Every structure is written in structure tokens, then in C-alpha cells.
Amino acid sequence: MSQRLSMASLTAAAASTAGATTSRLLAPAGLSLSSSAAASSSSSSSSLNCLRSATSGAHLFLRQRGSVLMNLSKRRFSAKCYASDPAQLLSAREDIRELLRTKFCHPIMVRLGWHDAGTYDKNIEEWPKRGGANGSLRFDAELKHGANAGLVNALKLLQPIKDKYSGVTYADLFQLASATAIEEAGGPKIPMKYGRVDVTGPEQCPEEGRLPDAGPPSPAQHLRDVFYRMGLNDKEIVALSGGHTLGRARPERSGWGKPVTKYTKDGPGTPGGQSWTVQWLKFDNSYFKDVKERNDEDLLVLPTDAVLFEDPSFKEYAEKYAEDQEAFFRDYAEAHAKLSNLGAKFDPPEGFSLDTAPPRPAPEKFVAAKYSSGQRELSDAMKQKIRAEYEALGGSPDKPLPTNYFLNIMIVIAVLAVLTYLTGSY
């Protein structure tokens, strides 16, 4: 009498626990690793780390007494893959928070995100020629631009996190670090989205000259030329200028500021430089108050800062922010989020949020009887359920199941039952 027995998940578990580590139910077949060295132009691959394909499963069919037909169907299926892995981004955010707490590097992280995004040109449609938040700042070709002096230090701080989370793109990591630094310094929550795709090589870096200068001949016109090219307006220019409430200017990098002041001589971090505010690691509206008053020679005021209270359109917003920190925080959060998206190519196209993404549903409990398919090919849903059961037992797509003696005994019993049926010894 012919009988059929479907044991897809049990067969996979037996292969793993018996020590056949090369036989896996789901084996990764395409991992794309990102470039490894932050300042090396030779490392250029984008970080798109996900399972591209896998073997689909195994059917065990017993067609007649005394004969066994094993059909291992190895068909490929596509898995949804984003530019960055959301779970890895969440973990990377925690590592960035710890980095900020220990290294006090909030200002340079904000600057890193701004400078990667700030090369965007709204008049160029083609990606990545249009510039923007695409991770190109990791390459020497762009790092050596005059406006980026010192940013190699930010890359060195972030590189261990990038190495740890290969499923996160540089473009997302830079913007994640920038927004997290604002929030950890006491600033507003930035409504960020993620999924930015990385450029792949230094030849895709924008030309030098797209970022603003600190002391141009006509500061107001210069700010408008640069930020209007990005698609930003006067309110956003002033709000983003308020980011100078964090950090210091160092003459050896920018040509501006004093070598050291009473506010910077003891750090934290490397001592030196000249800050715009007294508490230069606290995000608040003191920048606008201090620039307006200009009564402390140890606080920095650049030509592009002073013009905020001289140009009639800029002054309207600068005066408002000096009086109303809540309004500043609201407008800054919107402007920062807009800046961080400029020029980016997202996968998925709409991007995704780390704070509003619904939790992943728990996999349905595996019941082998549901997957008894006889001669039929396993459906995609069936493959996913088998995979979920495999992972629930302790396995994963890139490692075999750990040894489990109870499971071994159950497998032996199942195998003996099959052999008994085949030999006729009931």
C-alpha cells in the first residue's frame, strides 16, 4: 500500500544535528558587503546586506514499498531587501548614543551629516550627479574638499560601528549619527526616514565648491546661492544656522576662530577652538541670543552668523528664535529632516522610520501536517513557515542547528520508523 510522508522541517533538522553542516535548509547565497575603510577610496561597494536567494526545502516522498525517492528542490526565491536593515539601524543608534556619551563628538557628527547632504543640486535630476545624502563623503576625493577639513575624524569614530553593522549604508549612518547627536544634546526629535542608497565609488563624488563658506564677500547672497540651490528657503537657512549652538571652529581646519578660549581650554574632548556659545555641547537657542548681543569676545561670530540679524528676511526668523526656543526647535527639526533627505535615493522608495515601523508579527506555530504536499511544489508561504520553524529550533540561514540530544533521539525514532516501514518489519 502506497503512503506519503512529508517531513520537510524534520529532514532539515536531522541534517544539521547529525553534523552535516554543509546541508542547510536555508543557506545565504548573496551577501553584499559595504566598503570597509572610511577614508579609503579603494573600498567602494554599497552596503546592501540581505539574503538574495536560498534553497527552498526538501520533500521526502515514499512512493512504494522498498523504494524511496528523495527530491531536494533547489529553487531560488526573492526576499525583500532594503538599502539598510532596520534592526541593525536600531542597534547602531544605541552604539552611536554610547559613542556620544564617551567621546562628546556631537558637533562633528552633525557636521558630517550636513556636509554629506549639503552637496545637493536641485537643478540636476540624475542620481548621484545631483549630490546629496548618498555616502560619498567617505571617499578621499570628497573628504579632501576644503570645507570638509577634519571630518576624517568623524569617519574614524563611526567606522567600528559601520564594520559591526554591515547591513547599514554609509548614507544612512551619517544621517543617523547627525540626528542622534542633536537629540542627545537636548535638541528636538528629528522626524527622520531611512533607506538611503550608497554611491559605490569616488568617481561619483560631487565637485568641490558646493558647500557654504564662513566668510564670503556677500554673506547673505552667498547663503542664498548655496541653500537655494538645495531647494531650501530663508526660514530653513536661519533655522539650520542655529545648529552652531553646538561645536567649535578651529583655525587649523577652517581658518576661523581662536586657538583656545576660556570655554574650550578644558574640553570636553580635545581642548581648543572657539565656540559660538558658552555651553557648546548643549542644543538650545543660545546661539541666536549670543550672536544678537555680541558682547563676549570669547564667543565666535562669523560673517555668515552676523548677517542673520542684518538681512531683513533673515532677521525676522533670527529674532523669533532668540525669543522662542520652542519655535526654533520645531523649525529646526523640519529643516534638518529635509536637509538629510536631499538628493538621496531610497530603498524602499518611500523610506522607513525607526520609530513608527510596526513590529514584525511572530511566526505562526509550525504544524508539519499543514505542509504535507505530496507531489506538489512547496508554496512561498510554506517555505517561510519551514524557515521560521528552523530558526525557532535554534538555527539560522547562516549556521546549522546546535546539537540537541532530545531532538537527536526524536530524529532517530523517526528514521527507524521509516526504515521499519520500508523493510516490512512492522
Low-confidence stretches: 1-79
| Sheet with the most strands: spatial strand order | 1-2
Report the count of strand segments: 4
Q: Order of helices and strands, N to C? A: HEEHHHHHHHEHEHHHHHH
- The overall average pLDDT, rounded, is 80
Q: How many distinct helices?
A: 15
**General form:** elongated
**Structural Rg:** 29 Å
Specify the helix fraction band.
Answer: 25-40%
Question: Kindly, what is the distance between the CA atoms of the first and last residues, rounded to a whole number of angstroms?
Answer: 14 Å
What proportion strand?
Answer: under 5%
Function: Plays a key role in hydrogen peroxide removal.
GO cellular component, one term: chloroplast
Cofactor: heme b
Keywords: Calcium, Chloroplast, Heme, Hydrogen peroxide, Iron, Membrane, Metal-binding, Oxidoreductase, Peroxidase, Plastid, Potassium, Transit peptide, Transmembrane, Transmembrane helix
Question: What does this protein look like?
Answer:
The protein has 15 helices and four strands. A hairpin with a 2-residue loop joins strand 1 and strand 2. The chain has helices spanning 8-17, 86-103, 106-117, 140-143, 152-164, 170-184, 219-230, 234-241, 251-254, 286-293, 303-306, 312-323, 325-341, 380-392, 405-423; strands at residues 59-64, 67-71, 248-249, 274-275. With 426 residues, it is mostly helical. Residues 1-79 have low confidence and may be disordered.
